[in-house]
Amino acid sequence: MSFQTTITEDRRLSLLLVLNETPGYSANAFLLREAVGSIYGHTASLDQVRTDLAWLTEQGLVSSRTTADVTIATLTARGVDVATGRAV
User: Fold this and answer.
1) In contact, 75 and 23? CB cutoff 8 Å
2) Is 37 exposed, middle or buried (0-12, 13-18, 19+ CB in 10 A)?
3) Is 57 helix (H, G, I), strand (E, B) or coil?
4) Cα angle value 78/15/23 (rounded, 5°)
5) What is the rounded distance in angstroms from the CA atom of residue 82 to the CA atom of residue 45?
6) pLDDT tens series, the chain, 88 aa
7) Whole-number Cα distances in Å, 13 to 3, 21, 40, 45, 66
């Protein structure tokens, strides 16, 4: 596994962890980018966060929608299980 792959996986897990601690399990990509940077130390572009959210959506861990160029992600029940370590 490459170092970049490890970073990407950790950033995605960080997004799930942030959403798990967010009221309503929902936040926009701008806030998520700032949170994974300040809490988990990931420097990510907005495009990276949106790409990660799209991947997490494909895996059924979050649902996301984009309105007026703002992407909003909401953690699913499966995403909660992954964030809390009950599923891998």
Assistant:
1) no
2) middle
3) helix
4) 75
5) 24
6) 899 999 999 999 999 999 999 999 999 999 999 999 999 999 999 999 999 999 999 999 999 999 999 999 999 999 999 999 999 8
7) 15, 13, 10, 16, 21
As given in the structure block, the two tokens for residue 49 are: 């966060």
Which strand (E) or helix (H) includes residue 66?
strand 62-67
Residue 62 CB partners (closer than 8 Å, separation 6+):
15, 16, 19, 53, 56, 73, 74, 75, 76, 79
The CA distance from 62 to 69, in Å, is: 18
Closest Cα partner for 54 from 69, 43, 65?
65
In this prediction the pTM is 0.95
